[in-house]
Specification:
Layout: E1 5-6, H1 8-14, H2 20-26, H3 35-44, H4 62-87, E2 90-93, E3 101-107, E4 110-116, E5 118-121, E6 125-134, H5 136-139, E7 142-145, E8 148-151, E9 153-155, E10 160-163, H6 175-183, H7 192-205, E11 213-219, E12 229-230, E13 233-234, E14 241-245, H8 247-270, H9 293-296, E15 316-317, E16 323-324, H10 326-331, H11 348-359, E17 363-364, H12 366-374, E18 380-389, E19 403-413, E20 425-429, H13 437-447, E21 455-457, H14 460-473, H15 478-486, E22 488-490, H16 491-495, H17 499-504, H18 509-513, E23 517-518, H19 528-535, H20 548-556, H21 563-592
Parallel strand pairs: 1-4, 6-11, 10-14, 18-21, 21-22
Antiparallel strand pairs: 2-5, 3-4, 5-6, 7-8, 9-10, 11-14, 12-13, 15-16, 17-23, 18-19, 19-20
Helix pairs in contact: 1-7, 7-8, 14-15, 19-21
The structure holds iron/sulfur cluster.
Length: about 600
Amino acid sequence: MNEMNITKSTFMEYLRCKRYPALNKIYKRKDTDDLEKERYYDLISSLDNFEIDDDQIMSFDTEHLDVMMPYFSKIEVLLANKVSSLFKGETRYGIKYGEQKLFLRDYLNFNLSCFVDIYNKSEHTNIIEVKATTSRKYLDLGFSIDGVKQSIFYKDDDNILHLKEKLDPDLLTNKKYMVQRNKLKDRFHSVGVYVYDLLFQRFVIEEDIKDAKYYLGIVNSEYVFDGTYIEDEPIYDTSIAILIDLTDLTKELLPVMEDEIKEVIKRITEDDETKVKLGNYCQLKKMRQCIFKDICYSHVPLKNSLLEFLDKHHGFKTSEGEKYDYFELLNDGYLTMESVPHNWLTRKNNQIQRDCALTHKEYFDIAKIRSAVGILKYPIYHLDFESFPCPLPRYRGEKAYAQSLFQFSIHIEREPGVCDKEKDHYEFLAYDHSDNREQLVKELCECIKDDGGSVMVYNESFEKTRIKELAKIFPEYSEQLLKINERLYDLLHVVKTNSKLFTSLGYDDERSKTINYYHENLHGSFSIKKVLPIFSNLTYKGMVVGNGMEAVYAYARYKQYDETSLKVTREALTKYCQQDTWAMVEILKELRKI
Ligand code: SF4
């Protein structure tokens, strides 16, 4: 009798390290052959378009599934329709796990199993692994020939992406091409992880069907929705779905997969819980962070640890010039900032962090902070947006995962320190899921007067990009919106730094790129949620909506609420967004005192 069922998600988890299967057994975590778990795994692997705070990583649960699943299911349907019209024949898929075609393979006394998202039997068998991600990350795998940048993929007449080596086999000897291509073979890379999922399926199916073709089915990043709705449903062109042909690449990787499956089986059989070296496979601070992180990292201090060094991915260099990455140091027992010799820190920012850890004192570059605050123009418009990164476009002019704005909050600070939390607060909140963007733009432009005052945001790239997108979609407001963009002032640049800003203010390159402020309570992060408690007593704890993801859930669930719950939700959203802009007022108030 076979010992155990190994699904795709079991395989991917157990492949992390040899300790994982044993810990999984000890902690009696539900095994991953559970269908809901398998579904969750697929969802998690499609979430790289979300911006997530460090402390939210492990909080993705059924709530997220509930909110996003309708869109994910729709993507499967769109892809199934595309496959049907393209390949003809018989197409089988299911928006619930268990409805899809199941393949099993008996291997070394273990059951390998997989459900195929879309199975098509026509001239060939076509196997499609659907991912709610976009083609952007694949098209962006670029290299250059004679100075001309190009993707390693090309699109055929059926809108299917293929590796360019199919047209030009000489590319397999082109180093730059191969560097990008190798990312597809890296299970820790955002493009490789999906290839691995497909590869596992191929390994299971290969024994039954030798001539199948293997594709990833994803959303076309170039598709722009024209806004057509029929009976409340968006109508998409078939070009919204796109296939990537990975038949040859997965064939090439089959021997690797076989070795790895053997390795996983060995780990399950050995059942060895002893500690292993920490490594990239723990996927720290990523959506796929290992669930046993707290156990394996329990010896790493929660404050001022080596993991809190800024830019630690660049590594550390000894006085003899030997380079170490942070996992090497961790595994050699360098757990705290203090334990890393000062002269191994080649970056000034890391030296500052280490000094703060040693002295438990804050670091300030007073002159830089003062000069940045000194260029502010009043009134200051403290601005924050909330958005819904919907996997499928909902409104005219949107693409997949457009950060569709549904709310803004503005606090107007008329003179330094003159701002009332309630009276000087302005906001817009979409009442329902219909296209409220024009109203949002109109109210934004009315609120932010053409008076030259600074428009303060925290981490400007998000707001800047959203405003640019709106300017394109609503040309009648374009001039006003782009003028607002020119007035954006990033508070993060004052707290952290920004080379361009401080060079323009007359500081040399080294000082411009050196942080302006550090406190050990930042834990190596300058997110507003980390910065705020240092400068203010304000807290998000206990709020009904207390972070960006909860705001997304609250908005996305509008249709599920009755009138009373909707009212409560809207009030919670208002409070949350108001808190975000008030936080900037508070932080600036304290920075002015420096
Ligand atoms: S935290 Fe890292 S070392 Fe520990 S079980 Fe997970 S992957 Fe392995």
